[in-house]
Amino acid sequence: MRFFSLALICAALFLFNGCYLMKQGGALMGQQIAAKSINKMMKRDDISDEQREFFLLVQEIRAFAMDSIGLKNNKNYTKYVKAERDYIVDVVTASRDDSFEMYRWWFPIVGSVSYKGFFDMKDAVKEAGKISKKGGYDVNIGGASAFSTLGFFSDPVYSFMANYSVYDLASLIIHEQMHATVYIKGQTQLNEEMATFAGDEGGLTFVKMKFGEDSEQYKNAVLSKEDYSAYISLMRSLYNKLKAVYESDIAREQKLAEKERIITGFKNDIAHSYDSLFRTPRYKGLGSANINNANIASRMTYNRDLSLFYELYESRGRDLSKTVDELKALKKIKKNHKEYLRGRI
Fold this sequence. Notes:
By secondary structure, this protein is mostly helical. The N terminus is likely disordered. The longest helix has 31 residues. Strand 4 and strand 5 form a beta hairpin. The protein is globular, with a radius of gyration of 20 Å. It has one domain. The two termini are 35 Å apart. A 3-stranded mixed β-sheet has the order 1-2-8. Strands 6-3-7 form a 3-stranded antiparallel β-sheet. Strands 4-5 form a two-stranded antiparallel ribbon.
């Protein structure tokens, strides 16, 4: 299953903010303490062949990310944590119910962000309830399968990741390592789009390099990427239709009624036309999913427009390392980051 992660649930979100500090920071530290060195585990005789193969694959992806792409060389993904579930944190997002204006939290170091992560679902539900009581918000709780601590700690791999395809695992590690390499304070959209581009293209390149262009692994990775692109295209279309309604002059009640009609029609179209839209079963649940402004806006945070990054990629001869070098330069740019990139194409 392709991971859907609100990837940048930074350590600073856990290390500041009163009671949030105590519980979330404590849980994060508990995971850090529980993390075991992969190198040491591989020297043990009691690990299975499957675990050893998984660890070797993680090491291979790390080396590719750093040596071939030029991502930061640190201790991320050199440790292993046995997880009790198939994701790490529950993430709360919220948006106005008649617009895509996201509810935002502010934290030192990372600035303003449009999501807040919790290690305990009960805390996420409580936070979501607080926002709902304010009135006028759509709220969503989703599971994040990865996050970057931006160098505060060494980010580990988790046991559930052993079930990922090679493409999904490579995409995840490269996505998160891109965050560790380039992070622009307060620019959630830019950070996530950069990491999504790097993860998607880096993952595909890794699979092609490892197995060959004619391999089943590579063909399946291409199908996975194509289906994800189809999913994002559909979500972007839904976003644009709703945005047009929200920006119109009709009354709020009419906007909400039209919103309901559009989302219902979208889900019905997916359910009735799935096989003509997708080539794998990954998005079968989309026709019955709970879709609201919060999860639509969150998805667009990652994929509203990746065309600029692909134009830059094409201009550098589809060389991911050269493209990443251009993105690294954004750390020195104070504003108008995308305008800077356009000027480099």
